[in-house]
Every structure is written in C-alpha cells, then in structure tokens.
Design a protein that fits this description.
Elements: E1 4-9, E2 16-19, E3 42-47, H1 51-58, E4 66-70, H2 73-87, E5 92-95, H3 102-112, E6 117-122, E7 125-130, E8 139-145, E9 155-161, E10 170-179, E11 183-188, H4 189-192, E12 204-210, H5 214-221, E13 224-225, E14 231-237, H6 241-253, E15 260-265, H7 268-278, E16 283-288, E17 291-297, E18 303-311, E19 317-323, H8 327-338, E20 342-346, H9 347-350, E21 358-361, E22 369-375, E23 386-390, H10 391-397, E24 412-417, E25 420-423
Parallel strand pairs: 20-22
Antiparallel strand pairs: 1-8, 2-7, 2-11, 3-4, 3-5, 6-7, 8-9, 9-19, 10-18, 11-17, 12-14, 12-15, 13-14, 16-17, 18-19, 20-23, 21-22, 21-24, 24-25
Length: 425
C-alpha cells in the first residue's frame, strides 16, 4: 500500500485524541477554555435505576448518562422527565453544580458505549478518543491516497500505524470528529493540557493578509510581502498587533478592498501550521511538554468524520483510521462541486421532450465539467447535439435525476419506469 508520511506523535497516557487542530483553543486546561463559544453552559446527569437504558433510548449524546454544554438546563430536565414518563422508565435528570472537565468526558467516552473508543464533546464541539495506544514509542501517521481519477491528491484515510503487518480481526467505529478548519491533529490526552492554541508562547505574533487587494493594501499601509501569497507583519508584540490590524480591518470592512486576514500568535498550533503551509505533505509536528504532536491538512475540508480502531485476534490495537474519504464524503463533495459544474444534455431531451432514458458519468475533462451526460437514446450517432447545462438547472428541470448525481465516474443509469432509474452494471 502506498502512503504519504505525515509525521509522528507520542502517546504517554495511552489515550489518543483526534481533534480539529484549529479548534484546539476550545479545550480547557484545568478550568474553562481561554476562549469559549458561549459564556454560560450547563451539564446534566441522568440518575435512577433505569438511567442508562433511558439515556441510550433518549440518545441526545454519546455518553448515555450525561448531557454536556446545555444552554437551558431547566428545559433539558423537563424534556427528559417527559420522555421517561412516556417510556415508563425510572430515571431523572439532575443539573450538575459544575461542568464536567473535558479530560473526564474523554475518560467516560472510552467506556460509554464501546470499550476503548468514543466520541466526546468540548465546548459544544466533537472529538474522538481512542484508548489502548502503545506508550513506549512514537507512532507514525500516514495518509492513504485516493486512487487516480476524480479525487486524486486527496486521502482515502489517515492512519496511525501501530502494527503494519497485523491481521485485523475486528473493527470499532464512531462518528465523529468535527472539523471546521480542514485540519486534524493526533494529541495525547495528557499532552493536550500543555498544547497551546491562540496563546503566544513568546509574547509575539504575526498578522497577515492576502487576496485580490492585498498588494494595494500592503503598499498603502507599508506592510511587507512575506511570500508569494501573503503580506503583513511578523514578530509583533501581542500588545501592538491591534495598531497594525485596525487599518487593515477598516479597509476591508469598508467594502473598498477585498482581502482575508489571519492573526497568528506564536503558539504550538502556529508552529504546526507553518509546516503545513510550506511542506508538500501539508503536515507538521510540535514538541509539547517533551512529547510530539502531529497535525495535518485532511485534504477534504470541513465536516464530521468517522474514526475506526482496528484490533487483532488478541484485542490489541493495531491501527487507528480517520475515515476522511468515505463514500459519504465523496458524495457530499460531488454535490458541492455540482453547484458550479455543467452536464451535457442532448437536444432530443431538451428541445424534443424525449425522456432522459440514459444518464452516464464519464471522467471530467475540465474543472467545470461534472462528467454527466444525459441522453434519450434516439439521437443520431454522428450528430447527437449536446448542450452544456449547469447542473443546478438540470436538476431543477428533472428533479428525478438529483439522487443519481452523487455517483462516481463510470456510473450508468437507465430509465425503467416513469421517473425511476436503475443502475446498470
């Protein structure tokens, strides 16, 4: 199997956290996070003889005995009471006096449903915890590429390789890890407490901007050209960043200039991101409290992704897989791309009102080409007469085609009844 080496990480606690690198600042460090999404949130515990059964059937979170980060705890208690009355279960919800620390949520997640893997929440975000990870060595992280074709250059999965030669006897899967910055990170549970994001380690920060108006804006404000894409200032005192940022923000907010900005305090996340931006693997490492952390571009963007734990016949963890390129993700990406792509439709269908009897997907030839070809089957072979139609317009005219267009290159559908298609093998 071919793969792309992304780096390695240390796992002294034996518990791996898979989280979005860009959301790491929402993790608490022996207290509330430095930057919270919302100021006032509550946690609730389910108690009583039927508490676990009630929590599983209620299914409002991965942990069947807790609800985390609630805005309205009183309403949550009332809803749970109504549910247990209706289901005739002996259980009740109790508002906890303080919120459950994020690290404790992780430990609970590892036994909440399946032993050794689970989904946890932190500041209304989701991550995945995986237990049973070896503690005695650094573990490599590799990207498994998609095959040539439609999604070439992306990863089918991103794997933590523990024993490359082991035979997998069982697999556990949870969904999922929430990604909002197109990145993932492998961090040990204990190391996470010392992993800093959005908090400068040396009191310095960079402030950069880029976009169509960046050169003009840089010339006006005396900013430096930092590379082929970015302009701005490096190694500013955190306290003086505002003096440089204010005129940039004012110019952008006025609508006169188009540019994007980024504030980059010199933290562990920034250290990894510098490597991601300049390296071909789009990955990086940082040493945190003497241990390595590995972060990387997931190659697919934002979403919620599954994580799988592979076990051998002895129950030993041999591989952890981040399922970034699943069939569901591929279908979603096709739907997104179709918003600006075109399909070829014959004039027999468009102009002569012939039924769309055949729907085929060929390899796209350009970025704006979806690869879809719609035909009636009665067109002259020498001059079928195609029209390039935007995919949204195609599905507006023929809504019955919408569920077909998630299919991969090589798919072929045939009309078998009024509005019903079958896939041909």
């Amino acid at each position: 199997m071919t793969f792309v080496a992304l780096g390695s990480f240390d796992c002294p606690s034996g518990v791996l956290l898979v989280v979005d690198l860009g959301l790491a600042h929402h993790w608490e460090r022996r207290g509330l996070p430095a930057k919270r999404r919302e100021e006032t949130l509550y946690d609730v515990a389910f108690e009583g003889p039927d508490a676990r059964e009630a929590g599983l059937r209620y299914d409002r979170g991965y942990d069947p005995l807790r609800q985390y980060d609630l805005r309205d705890a009183g309403r949550a208690v009332e809803r749970f009471a109504a549910f247990t009355r209706e289901e005739r279960l002996d259980a009740r919800a109790v508002v906890l006096p303080t919120q459950v620390p994020h690290a404790e949520r992780v430990r609970r997640a590892l036994s909440a449903r399946a032993s050794g893997i689970g989904c946890f929440t932190y500041d209304r975000l989701w991550g995945v915890a995986v237990g049973g990870i070896p503690t005695d060595r650094a573990l490599p992280v590799v990207g498994v590429p998609m095959p040539p074709g439609e999604f070439a250059g992306r990863f089918r999965s991103i794997d933590v390789v523990i024993d490359a030669d082991a035979v997998v006897a069982a697999t556990q899967e949870v969904t999922g890890v929430m990604v909002d910055h197109g990145q993932l990170a492998c961090v040990d549970l204990e190391v996470m407490d010392s992993f800093h994001a959005m908090r400068s380690l040396d009191g310095l920060a960079d402030y950069v901007f880029w976009g169509p108006a960046a050169p003009e804006l840089a010339d006006r404000l005396g900013a430096t050209k930092l590379d082929e894409r970015e302009y701005g200032w490096r190694d500013l005192s955190v306290d003086e960043v505002g003096r440089y940022a204010q005129p940039v923000q004012a110019a952008i907010e006025s609508g006169q200039l188009r540019a994007a900005v980024d504030y980059r305090p010199h933290c562990h996340v920034d250290e990894i991101n510098r490597q991601i931006r300049r390296g071909p693997s789009r990955s990086g490492e940082a040493v945190v409290a003497g241990r390595r952390v590995c972060g990387f571009d997931n190659r697919w963007g934002d979403g919620v992704f599954g994580v799988l734990r592979d076990l051998d016949a002895d129950g030993r963890v041999v591989r952890v897989r981040m399922d970034v390129g699943s069939e569901a993700v591929q279908r979603r990406m096709r739907r997104v791309a179709h918003r600006w792509q075109r399909a070829l439709v014959t004039r027999a269908v468009l102009d002569d009102a012939e039924p769309a009897r055949f729907v085929d997907r060929y390899a796209p030839r350009r970025r704006d080409d979806s690869g879809w070809v719609v035909s009636a089957g009665v067109e002259p072979e020498d001059a079928p007469g195609f029209v390039a139609l935007p995919v949204p317009e195609l599905t507006a005219r023929y809504p019955e085609l919408t569920p077909l267009l998630d299919a991969e290159v090589g798919a072929r559908f045939r009309l078998v009844a009024d509005g019903r298609y079958e896939r041909e093998e």
